[in-house]
TrEMBL record:
A molecular function GO annotation: serine-type endopeptidase activity
Domain Lon N-terminal: residue ranges: 92-298
Pfam family, one: LON_substr_bdg
Protein name: endopeptidase La
Key words of the record: ATP-binding, DNA-binding, Hydrolase, Mitochondrion, Nucleotide-binding, Protease, Serine protease
Superkingdom per UniProt: Eukaryota
GO biological process: chaperone-mediated protein complex assembly; mitochondrion organization; protein quality control for misfolded or incompletely synthesized proteins
Gene name tied to this protein: LON2_3
The reaction(s) this protein catalyses: Hydrolysis of proteins in presence of ATP
Function: ATP-dependent serine protease that mediates the selective degradation of misfolded, unassembled or oxidatively damaged polypeptides as well as certain short-lived regulatory proteins in the mitochondrial matrix. May also have a chaperone function in the assembly of inner membrane protein complexes. Participates in the regulation of mitochondrial gene expression and in the maintenance of the integrity of the mitochondrial genome. Binds to mitochondrial DNA in a site-specific manner.
Organism annotation: Anthurium amnicola
InterPro entries linked: AAA+_ATPase, ATPase_AAA_core, Lon_bac/euk-typ, Lon_lid, Lon_Prtase, Lon_prtase_N, Lon_prtase_N_sf, P-loop_NTPase
């Protein structure tokens, strides 16, 4: 038999051994199962009973790969020892491992970027010496994992030697494909010295586990606890089950040392903790370290399971609630109790359009019907659904053909205009002409009027009065500094957040198609990269074109011919000529002194006095004070500065009145002093009430005296001294404040315009 084995080459012998029948005797498989208790305990993935013939053949002909096992790597070398055994390698090439150490009996793929190192490994494999030393790389302080990975390939010679841990693993090179090298660990090594620098070659000592008693109860109990914990982890972690399926197929003889390595190798612990397990030669201590690692893995698995369970419950609860809501909607819809969102929206839009449907233009009705049909076909979650809904909202909210009843009474309009403004005869005359033409025609047409004048002459306020006189809704917007055409013409619906222009917003807000629109500060229009708003106003303010005004958002013509446009400007020269040509300009000159006197007395003073809470009988501002205020303080064309000075005067008057005290408090104090001055301690007298009128004290009816003293009691006059003391205090409290030209500087300061200046 020995002669036949010697005659066969190693490859032929290995091939014949691998071609053994698949059906091995059951007794041999049972003996194999007894040799691999870890496979039996944890369960083989391919065969739960642990009697897979392929596993039996692996157990017979694969290396024990570590510990005290003396079996060779290949069966051919075991029978015909033509190649060196692993323990014969006392000098090996050092392979740095950046992430985790390699344990005996486990596979690990690594990438070798160094061409010289890779070539040396290939040559060793060709010489039938496919072994190298795998050593974990130490981390440098202040560097993270990515930096250490980059620096591995820059380390050479002594620098790399200093960065390696002393204890590593003798690894067999099973395959080399490009830069990927697959290693399988065999036994522990300890570096003794450096032999070569490029590639790094080191002398090593082969380490063996310290002797231990296999029947020791403590070691048995610890190993059983490790196995029990591993089984618990396998139940909860699918990742660990994958590891076990991979490693149990290649594990050799089971012993306590191999169990410790197995637990540390498949754990996700820190690489330094795994290195401690690798360096530990005492089997009991190694089992304890492994037990700590698998216990931590067990806690992590439990935490992961609880988090996954909580998230799953939350998701399932939300899904259940969603399904119940959908079922409830379906049931209500079947019973006619509720309609879906699209049906409800369509019903709302149709109901909103119904009052003005007969007045609505046909082309607008056609667009609305098309959009309603489109809305029913869209999903509620799509972006196009929201665009269509907003578009229908604007289309149905506009007052199509809805006009307010105008007042063509010229006398009524004249009264309202005179109530609100003094002077401005040109403007009032033009408005009355407009009303007269409308009364004769029976209808009114939209006009474009431009009021030009200095600040403070009442250009903006006259617009509101005109709207009230005509019984029209009023809407104002300022175009000062406006540089975006979209503010006038609207945005395209393709943009997110698109909105119609100011005119469409105006019609929706006022609810009528014939409002009075005041375009303020038209001479201060801006111009930017978004276009020229002045050119966009040409269509809006042209009576021949605004009957079919086209907004970019609505994209349907709108009739603005009934709208009365009133524009205001300070300098008409700043208005572009094409725009100025479309407007009727009415110039508002500044007010003269007499007009300012009437405005101050009839409008400004009354409004300011009421705003400050002062009664007319408490203060008197003379005409001389107003004249001095106009000539020496407020010489501008408008009355805005005059209003500010009048407000300043009345604020100071209010402060003086509050500092003097309230009239009711002073009256009650004088009554108390008067009653104390009476000398009638023995008489039962009802107190007479004192009434202060025009600064004088008046007494009521005579006091009533008690019956016991009615015959001899006499009514005593109040003491003169007490009356003289109290009367000046009350007179002083109720003296009317008079503001004239002499004390005017006390309220508004020194004159601004003066002969000395």
């Amino acid at each position: 038999m020995a002669t036949m084995l010697r005659a066969l080459s190693p490859g032929q012998l290995h091939g014949r051994l691998r071609s053994l029948p698949a059906a091995l005797p059951a007794s041999l498989c049972v003996r194999t199962e007894k040799r691999f208790p870890l496979i039996r305990v944890l369960g083989s993935p391919g065969n739960p009973n642990g009697t897979d013939p392929l596993s039996c053949r692996r157990a017979l002909f694969c290396s024990g790969a570590g510990g005290d096992a003396e079996q060779p790597v290949e069966a051919s070398s075991a029978i015909v020892p033509t190649n060196p055994r692993p323990e014969d390698h006392m000098s090996v090439i050092a392979l740095p491992l950046p992430y985790r150490p390699l344990f005996p009996g486990f596979y690990m793929p690594i990438y070798v970027k160094d061409s010289k190192l890779l070539q040396a490994l290939v040559e060793n494999r060709k010489r039938s010496a496919p072994y190298a030393g795998a050593f974990l790389l130490k981390d440098e302080s202040g560097t993270d994992g990515s930096e250490s990975e980059k620096s591995i390939y820059d380390l050479k010679g002594k620098e790399l030697f200093k960065r390696l841990h002393e204890v590593g693993t003798l690894a067999q090179i099973t395959s080399i494909q490009g830069e990927q090298v697959v290693l399988i660990g065999h036994r522990r090594l300890r570096i003794t010295e450096m032999v070569g620098e490029d590639p790094l070659t080191v002398k090593v000592d082969h380490l063996k586990d310290l002797p231990y008693d296999k029947d020791d109860d403590i070691i048995k109990a610890t190993s059983f606890e490790v196995i029990s914990t591993l089984r618990d982890v396998l139940k909860t972690s699918s990742l660990w089950r994958d590891h076990v399926q991979t490693y149990t197929q290649h594990i050799g003889d089971f012993n306590y040392s191999r169990l410790a390595d197995f637990g540390a190798a498949i754990s996700g612990a820190n690489k330094l903790l795994c290195q401690q397990v690798l360096e530990e030669l005492d089997v009991y201590k190694r089992l304890k370290l492994t037990l700590e690692l698998v216990k931590k893995e067990m806690e992590i698995s439990k935490l992961q399971e609880s988090i996954a369970k909580a998230i799953e419950e939350k998701i399932s609860g939300e899904q259940r609630r969603f399904l119940l809501n959908e079922q409830l909607k379906a049931i209500k819809k079947e019973l006619g109790m509720e309609t879906d969102d699209k049906t409800a929206l369509s019903a709302k839009f149709r109901q909103r359009l119904e009052p003005n449907k007969e007045k609505c233009p046909p082309h607008v009705l056609q667009v609305i019907e098309e959009e309603l049909t489109k809305l029913q076909l869209l999903e509620a979650s799509s972006s196009e659904f929201n665009v269509t809904r907003n578009y229908l909202d604007w289309l149905t909210a506009l007052p199509w053909g809805n006009y307010s009843d105008e007042n063509f009474d010229v006398h009524h309009a004249q009264k309202i205009l005179d109530e609100d403004h003094y002077g401005l005869s040109d403007v009032k005359e033009r408005i009355l002409e407009f009303i007269a033409v409308g009364k004769l025609r029976g209808t009114s047409q939209g006009k474009i009027i431009c009021l030009s004048g200095p600040p403070g002459v009442g250009k903006t306020s006259i617009g509101r009065s005109i709207a009230r006189a005509l019984n029209r809704k009023f809407y104002r917007f300022s175009v000062g500094g406006l540089a975006d055409v979209a503010e006038i013409k609207g945005h395209r619906r393709t943009y997110i957040g698109a909105m119609p222009g100011k005119m469409v917003q105006c019609l929706k807000n006022v609810g009528t198609a014939n409002p009075l629109v005041l375009i303020d500060e038209i001479d201060k229009l801006g111009r930017g990269h978004a276009g020229d708003p002045a050119s966009a106003l040409l269509e809006l303010l042209d009576p021949e074109q605004n009957a079919n005004f086209l907004d970019h958002y609505l994209d349907v013509p709108i009739d603005l011919s009934k709208v009365l446009f009133v524009c205001t400007a300070n300098v008409i020269e700043m208005i572009p000529n094409p725009l100025l040509d479309r407007m009727e300009v009415i110039a508002l000159a500044g007010y003269i002194t007499d007009e300012k006197m009437h405005i101050a007395r009839d409008y400004l003073e009354k409004t300011t006095r009421e705003a400050c809470g002062i009664r007319p009988e408490q203060v008197d501002v003379t005409d001389a004070a107003f004249l001095s205020l106009i000539e020496n303080y407020c010489r501008e064309a408008g009355v805005r500065n005059l209003q500010k000075h009048i407000e300043k005067i009345y604020r100071k008057i209010a402060l003086k009145l509050v500092r003097r005290g309230l009239p009711d408090e002073l009256s009650s104090d004088s009554n108390v002093q008067h009653d104390d001055a009476k000398d009638a301690p023995e008489k039962s007298i009802q107190a007479s009430s004192e009434v202060v009128r025009d600064g004088k004290i008046e007494m009521d009816a005579p006091v009533a005296i008690s019956d016991a003293q009615s015959g001899e009691a006499e009514l005593k006059e109040p003491e003169v001294g007490a009356t003289d003391v109290n009367v000046p205090q009350v007179d002083e409290a109720f003296d009317k404040l008079v503001i004239d030209e002499s004390n005017l500087p006390d309220f508004v300061g020194k004159p601004v315009f003066h002969a000395e200046r």
